[in-house]
Design a protein that fits this description.
The complex is a heterodimer of chains A (578) and B (341). Chain A is an all-alpha fold and 578 residues long. Helix content of chain A is 66%, strand content 0%. The radius of gyration of chain A is 24 Å and the shape is globular. Chain B is of the alpha+beta class. Helices cover 36% and strands 18% of the residues of chain B. In chain B, strands 3-2-1-5-8 form a five-stranded mixed sheet, covered by helices on one side. Chain B starts with 13 loop residues before the first helix and ends with a helix. The relative contact order of chain B is 0.12. Classes of the chains: A mainly alpha (578), B alpha+beta (341). At the A-B interface, helix 4, helix 9, helix 10, helix 11 and helix 12 of A face helix 1, helix 2, strand 7 and strand 9 of B.
Chain lengths: 578, 341
């Protein structure tokens, strides 16, 4: 791609230099654009909405984490330590419902995506700011309903709501919990639509599809899954409520329904939902690795294309959750085959990230350590997925702790490591403050070790035969459960540390420059924190993304190099960190 | 305390499932370590400030992309094919399998052998013999899981599911319900006891003796229900009566396993699922030439009684005279009775 047919680059670099000049006479940052509660709760600024999401999603993470802690403590002894079976079942359901619907699905898109998508495409906001605000209210309403359900008796179906247990037998707050998940689903849909329209229609001049950051590609793929998949689960959950409340027979054979139908409908969304959780994480990793290796992402087109491949193939593999559920043997074989295929795009991403480091200039800042942490855990998470895509081994391993370990490696090891990588990477941009580097690196190390200690024993237990969702268990599994609980304690430290030092940094952290990492990307051309309208002048993009080679080229640079660079690096010495 | 790191291998599937399992672990460990080693090695070599050659960096290479797409794909498809082939074996029961009926209910497993012997939360089996479980749930979805056999299948309400295996080692193995089924899900467990064939025959006869006064074999129990419900007032059970024009219901003689023509076109194989459906929801699929007048027996028969009626229907002969499960089941029950002193 040449710059010849693009608008001249000169106005951009002028605007850009102006925008990063300290104490420039300009609009205040989005954080100081109003201090009243009203200015936050009625804001239409995507950045403020991202902060609202950050606060509320963090609260749900605390709730889900406490429930996980309670479950792990309960499992120290084979016959339980302090809970009844009723309470235990409600506790693991609370953990699953909160973590899936109110943490993992929205975490990266609604916080980092909301904040960054407009900045990265050079827009002043998302396409539909009011819809964006509505999405946060829907999320909060759904969350409040789910918490109310938990406080008024809880729900004991597991986050999967399998029928006919959920439609007839469960004597718990199924309807209210489902209402919460249903409403939160619309918040997802609103965010997805906003991203799709923004990415299609509001890219800055010169920002062609293949100049988009891979974070944007990942969020685009995610949004497509959200918009296509979420309505299906919404309808499915409605049908559960219809059968439960009005006895309209859909899933319960006593009313002429088919219980396996529910599993088809549920996993049609809920398997792609796994990719809603992991694709944005992969987008973060592409940005972070490229920046801290100071090199363009290797095989950009393949990494971008693999996100789209995952989004498409991800819709065709739901039946691998049902190899022992009574679906036909031949259906099982087709789903198994497709599941092996969907593993390939993920592998392609990992290989490309590795190749990115080759001939790079690597620094080991906290976001990069979290990214390594992601790859180490995601590799095992992804590869153990093959055990479950493979038919004969799945028959033995499904419904056991092996599955639990596998999806925690992907969704906790993978998604949360990447969320932390992104949160640290963009923390200076979001808050205008630097976090302390030492504790952050320590957190990455603790997270990695605590994670393995928690979930490696679960692979062993699962293979030996320990079923999941068991309150009481045979005594021979106790040692592995104790190891797992010990690991969870270590992980808890890795979750508490960032709370402490990130909050500390809000007051005492060093003030961040516009571009503390010397990163490329339009979001780094505006001050930290950005002004409400993001860009004083519309930026013009004239080159490929991740122009680190050009950005790091020894001075003086020729004009032609400058114009070939997508974005300058914020007036800071390349490679420098705070 | 004994900490098991591997499950026991007690069925004909166990060794091969484990082979796939360990090959997958070998691939997992190899790729994880290789990628991490290369990544961290490169990161160290190209750490900022290190004095190495960084000239002519590469940003894309189609050959490399194809290579690292192709190799994992081929490896993956090889594992897929191997595993799918084994899976097909686990899903297609051999014709000589000994039939046992399993009912899952919250929160207990109920087993009935074809000679009528019942057990709760236990299953006794002879070693070296193919076993076919026909399973149904009385309430929610359960899942019958014996880790030592590497087999598992969900047990559904309203439809039969099947599971077969061949125990290869005498011993006592854990049985779990592995599909979450409510409050006491984790207590819906039990034991599978695999015995020498002689011991098993003795056990079966002995258990049959204990309950002989109240217990009939499944076929007889089914016939008793058939008579009590007066099924015979509409249906015929002998070949000669089939041609009788005034029968309101179809003949049941030789029905099992035959192809039935349906009203409005199409045919259906009269297997256990079809027989169950025709008892519970007779109007779902009407046989050609008959009216939808049969009442539903849903709620009137327990799952156990339904299985007994079906066992009786199967004893009325099966289509084509093949050596089907029905015959071997009744043969087994005869054998079991014959073994009594």
């Amino acid at each position: 791609m040449t710059a010849s047919n693009e608008p001249a680059a000169v106005p951009l670099s002028e605007a850009h230099l102006e925008s990063v000049a300290p104490h420039a006479d300009r609009a205040p940052s989005y954080l100081s654009a109003g201090h009243t509660l009203r200015s936050w709760l009625l804001t239409q600024d995507h950045k403020r909405i991202a902060v609202l999401y950050l606060i509320s999603i963090s609260l749900f993470f605390v709730i889900g984490g406490l429930a996980a802690g309670a479950v792990r403590v309960e499992l120290i002894k084979p016959r339980g330590t302090f809970m009844s079976s009723e309470l235990y079942n409600r506790m693991f359901t609370l953990h699953g419902v909160v973590m899936i619907f109110f943490f993992l699905i929205p975490a990266i898109p609604a916080i980092l995506g909301n904040f960054l998508v407009p900045l990265m495409v050079g827009a002043r906001d998302l396409a539909f700011p009011r819809l964006n605000l509505l999405s946060w209210y829907l999320y909060s309403a759904g969350g409040l309903l789910a918490i109310t359900a938990a406080l008024t008796g809880g729900v004991d179906t597991g986050w999967t709501f399998y029928t006919p247990y959920s439609t007839f037998y469960s004597n718990s707050q199924v309807t209210m919990t489902i209402a919460g998940a249903f409403i939160a689903g619309f918040s997802s849909i609103a965010t997805g639509i906003n991203f799709i329209v923004t990415i299609h229609k509001m890219r800055a001049p010169g920002l062609t599809w293949f100049r988009l950051p891979l974070f944007i590609w990942a969020h685009y793929a995610t949004s497509i899954i959200i918009v296509l998949g979420t309505p299906v689960v919404a309808i499915t959950l409605l049908l559960v409520v219809a059968e439960r409340v009005a006895h309209i027979g859909v899933f319960d054979p006593r009313y002429g329904g088919d219980p396996v139908l529910f599993q088809h409908l549920f996993w049609f969304y809920s398997h792609p939902a796994v990719y809603i959780m992991i694709l944005p994480a992969m987008g973060v990793i592409s940005e972070v690795i490229s920046c801290f290796a100071r090199k363009r992402v290797f095989g950009y087109h393949f990494v971008a294309g693999s996100s789209m491949a995952i989004a498409v193939l991800g819709f065709l593999v739901w039946g691998h959750h049902m190899f022992v559920s009574g679906q036909s043997m031949y259906a099982g074989m087709v789903f198994s085959f497709l599941s092996f295929l969907v593993a390939i795009p993920s592998a392609v991403k990992v290989f490309n990230w590795t190749a990115t480091i080759y001939k790079g200039s690597v620094s080991f800042d906290a976001p990069m350590l979290f990214a390594f942490c992601f790859i180490g855990l995601f590799l095992i998470g992804g590869l153990t997925g093959l055990f479950l895509a493979s038919l004969a081994t799945d028959v033995h391993l499904t419904h056991t702790y092996f599955v639990v370990a596998h999806f925690h490696y992907v969704m906790v090891g993978g998604a949360i490591s990447a969320y932390f990588a992104g949160l640290h990477f963009w923390w200076p941009k979001i808050t205008g403050r630097m976090y302390p580097e030492g504790p952050a690196r320590l957190t990455a190390v603790i997270l990695f070790m605590g994670f393995h200690l928690t979930f490696l024993p679960q692979f062993v237990m699962g293979f030996v035969g320990m079923p999941r969702r068991y309150h009481y268990y045979p005594p021979e599994f106790q040692t592995m459960h104790i190891l797992s609980t010990a690991g969870a304690t270590v992980m808890a430290v890795a979750y508490l540390l960032p709370v402490v030092y990130l909050l500390w940094s809000l007051r005492y952290g060093k003030r961040a420059t516009a571009n503390p990492w010397g990163a490329t990307g339009l979001e780094w051309t505006v001050p930290s924190p950005p002004p409400t309208h993001n860009f004083d002048t519309v930026p013009v993009v004239t080159g490929e993304p991740y122009g680190y080679d050009e950005a790091d080229a020894p001075l003086p640079v020729t004009d032609s190099v400058v114009s070939a660079t997508m974005q300058a690096t914020g007036g800071k010495t390349p490679g420098g960190t705070a | 305390m004994d900490i098991p790191l591997l499950p026991q291998q007690a069925s004909s599937f166990a060794v091969e499932v484990d082979a796939i399992y360990f090959v997958l672990w070998a691939l997992t460990i190899f790729f994880s370590l290789a990628v991490m080693a290369v990544m961290l090695g490169l990161a160290y070599r190209y750490r900022r400030g290190s004095n190495v050659d960084r000239s002519r960096p590469v940003h894309a290479d189609l050959r490399v992309e194809l290579l690292w797409t192709g190799i994992p794909l081929l490896l993956g498809l090889a594992v897929f094919a191997w595993s799918a082939k084994l899976y097909a074996r686990t899903r297609i029961p051999p014709p000589d399998a000994m039939q046992i009926y399993v009912i899952g209910k919250r929160w207990m497993w109920q087993v009935q052998h074809s000679n009528g012997v019942r057990e709760n939360a236990e299953l006794h089996l002879p070693v070296g013999k193919n076993v076919l479980l026909t399973m149904i749930s009385q309430d929610v979805i359960h899942s019958f899981f014996v880790p030592a056999f590497r087999v598992k299948h969900d047990v559904l309400p309203g439809a039969y599911t099947r599971l077969w295996f061949r125990p290869t080692r005498v011993g006592k193995y854990r049985l779990f319900c592995s599909q979450y089924c409510g409050t006491q899900h984790s207590q819906m467990d039990g034991w599978v006891t695999v015995m020498e064939p002689d011991d098993f025959e003795r056990w079966l006869a002995n258990e049959g003796e204990k309950t002989a006064t109240t217990q009939m074999n499944m076929v007889d129990a089914g016939k008793a229900i058939y008579d009590r419900m007066a099924c015979g007032s509409c249906h015929a059970t002998r070949d000669a009566e089939t041609s009788a024009p005034r029968q309101r219901g179809g003949s049941l003689y030789g029905l099992y396993g035959s192809l039935v023509k349906l009203k409005g076109g199409g045919t259906v194989r009269a297997d256990e699922d079809y027989l169950r459906e025709s008892i519970m929801r007779p109007n779902a699929r009407i046989v050609e030439g008959y009216w939808p007048i049969m009442p539903s027996y849903e709620g009137q028969l327990t799952e156990e009684q339904t299985l007994q009626v079906i066992a009786y229907l199967k004893s009325l002969g099966s289509a084509g005279g093949e050596e089907g499960p029905a015959k071997s089941a009744s043969a087994a029950s005869v054998a079991a009775r014959g073994a009594r002193p």
